[in-house]
Write a structure and sequence with these properties.
four-stranded antiparallel sheet; five-stranded antiparallel sheet; globular; 322 residues; 2 helices; 5% helix
């Protein structure tokens, strides 16, 4: 991944304004990237402003890795307690990395004791990758699997349990301070999936198998369905962009969705939303995306191969979306 000279000045200025000087070799270019990472199978991605690059998880190994300028990865987090890592987000203000972990039977360390039972939020030091705490979210009987995570300006994390049909709020000290369930969260197959925190004080989350989008008030527990012209079937990752639009990544890994990306906008505080036509996504099933100074990067981690038992894939792709 070669550094482009024409990007050097804007990147270094942006880094200096933010109090961080980033060497040119660490800067991430505004281009599509195929990364070499044998058998990694990332499902989640986040932009790390402190390193000026992306971080990715691993369904196979349960790690978090840094995408390097030479199109390879370097492991940042390797905690034996986590079977598979899914959603990740950076809380740069507090120097933290937030990671959801679970076991859907696809991890190298998957086993009967943890499959569809392990579910939690890992909190790690962003600089060193050292564990700060693990928050167990496998509450109550039945199956559980933490999926995605978002963070608000105060450092509260919002985590979806895609099997247990619950949305959690975890405070900066690692305490569960709210949990929301609702009859409409129940779904055949995978349920609650992508999640974002809206600065107006609510959460947006999508149900994978039904494509329903919900607006959730974590304080009152109120859940309202966002009226859509068509469901987001196979709705996986969500990204709220600075202009207020919502990027939705869909796939057909476990639902009759399409491998594609679309943009949703709302003019009534997310009571209703309008959708752009879906942009079909090449090269496999995309799972999520991350907003960065270079635009929105969509991750294709080739989970369609891993779900069939194929562990031979050596790459994953980060591709720009308009």
């Amino acid at each position: 991944m070669r550094f482009r000279n024409r990007l050097a000045l804007p990147l270094l200025l942006a880094a200096a304004i933010g109090g961080l000087v980033v060497p040119p070799a660490q800067a991430h270019p505004a281009q599509d990237v195929e990364v070499t990472a044998p058998s990694l199978y990332p499902e989640g991605v986040a932009w790390d402003p402190t390193r000026q690059t992306y971080l990715v998880g691993s369904v196979r190994f349960g790690t978090v890795a840094v995408v390097q300028h030479d199109k390879t990865v370097r492991t940042l987090v390797s905690d034996p307690a986590m079977v598979s890592t899914f959603g990740i987000t950076v809380d740069a203000a507090r120097g933290r990395l937030l990671v959801t972990y679970a076991d859907l039977g696809l991890g190298e360390r998957s086993g009967p004791a943890t499959t569809n039972r392990q579910s939690g939020l890992g909190i790690f030091d962003l600089r060193t990758g050292q564990r700060i705490s693990l928050v167990d979210l496998a509450e109550g009987a039945g199956e559980h699997a933490a999926n995605d995570v978002a963070v608000d300006a105060r450092g509260n994390a919002y985590v979806t349990d895609t099997v247990g049909d619950t949305l959690f709020r975890v405070d900066p000290r690692g305490r569960i301070t709210a949990r929301v369930t609702h009859p409409d969260f129940a779904a055949p197959g995978f349920g609650l999936n992508g999640v974002v925190w809206h600065p107006d004080g609510f959460v947006l989350t999508v149900i994978y198998s039904t494509g329903k989008l919900f607006k959730v008030d974590m304080n009152s527990g109120r859940v309202d369905a966002v009226t859509l012209d068509q469901p987001l079937l196979g709705g996986d990752g969500l990204v709220l962009r600075r202009d207020g639009s919502l990027v939705s990544v869909t796939n057909n890994l476990g639902a009759p969705g399409v491998n594609g990306v679309r943009v949703l906008t709302s003019g009534d505080h997310w009571h209703t939303a309008r959708q752009s036509p879906v942009t079909p996504w090449p090269g496999g099933a995309p799972t999520t995306a991350a907003a960065s100074p270079f635009g929105t990067a969509v991750l294709t981690g080739h989970l369609e191969a891993l779900t069939t038992g194929d562990t031979s894939v050596r790459t994953f792709t980060l591709r720009r979306f308009r």
